[in-house]
Design brief:
single chain; alpha/beta; Rossmann fold; globular; ABC_transporter-like_CS; ABC-type phosphonate transporter activity; ATP binding
């Protein structure tokens, strides 16, 4: 279980990005983190694994406190947290397989990582993950030869190669088209469900969050203003999080995109639309 207690982040400029955020995420739960730009979503994710240093508060994973750890202990604990980035963060000149194996760098010695001579079990694990994300045939391709959706799949496989206890996902669909976005979200949900892996997904697409997440947390100005199920995310709640917006039109547009995709798939299968 992940536990946050009064997590606060204030920058040197005096801007407060997070204000006493407290929440817990049990094993296997998928949490969508929504809110307007500047609400503190990315800061919250980065404070959990201390890519951004919290000003105060506590972060506990499986009962072990991460705040206050020294550099060496922190490196060891970060192996327990998989991270998937909006811009993929792949090494472009390396192959897909090498990028996935980089998820094992926290477990091997310097010379193993330098020479990239990973243990056989790590290589077998990487192949299994590539098969699971649908990229087995792309193992030897350079990362810069892949599409955006394929790169995100590599990022998922790399994070899972760590065998993490928690998955942090920062805007996984921001650079993807609607159809690919749904495919990536569906893959994340399926994999996390299969292994009971908890995940926090920072996502800007509200209908997508409602479709795939089990729980939604809404941030506004660094504070939690909503914590509930997708069904509880009413228009009045969305207005409290984001301000005035035509939420009915947004949902209709999302449903029309889903319907058009389903019709296209039926036509490809030779079925009536």
């Amino acid at each position: 279980m992940l536990e946050l207690h009064d997590l606060t982040k204030t920058y040197r400029t005096g801007d407060r990005a997070l204000s006493a955020v407290s929440l817990s995420v049990p094993r296997g739960q998928l949490v969508g983190l929504i809110g307007p730009s500047g609400a503190g979503k990315s800061t919250l994710i980065r404070c959990i694994n201390r890519l951004v240093e919290p000003t105060s508060g506590r972060v506990l994973l499986g009962g072990r406190e991460l705040t206050g750890l020294g550099a060496r202990e922190l490196r060891a604990q970060r192996r327990r947290i998989g991270m998937i980035f909006q811009e993929y963060a792949l090494v472009e000149r390396l192959s897909v397989m090498e990028n996935v194996l980089s998820g094992r760098l926290g477990y091997v010695g310097f010379w193993t990582s330098f020479t990239r001579r990973f243990p056989p079990e790590d290589i077998r694990r990487a192949y299994r993950l590539l098969d699971r994300v649908g990229l087995m045939d792309h193992a030897d391709k350079r990362a810069d030869a892949l599409s955006g959706g394929q790169r995100q799949r590599v990022g998922i496989a790399r994070a899972l190669a760590q065998e993490p206890e928690l998955l942090l996902v920062d805007e996984p669909t921001a650079s993807l088209d609607p159809r690919t976005s749904r495919q990536i979200m569906r893959l994340l949900v399926e994999i996390c469900t299969e292994v009971g892996l908890p995940a926090i997904v920072n996502i800007h697409d509200v209908p997508l969050a409602q479709q795939f997440m089990q729980r939604i947390i809404g941030l506004r100005a660094g504070r939690v203003v909503f914590d509930g199920t997708p069904a509880q995310l009413t228009e009045s709640v969305l207005t409290e999080i984001y301000g005035a917006e035509d939420w009915t039109a947004m949902r209709k547009g999302h449903e029309e995109e889903e319907g058009a995709e389903a019709d296209a798939l039926r036509r490809l299968a030779g079925l009536p639309a």
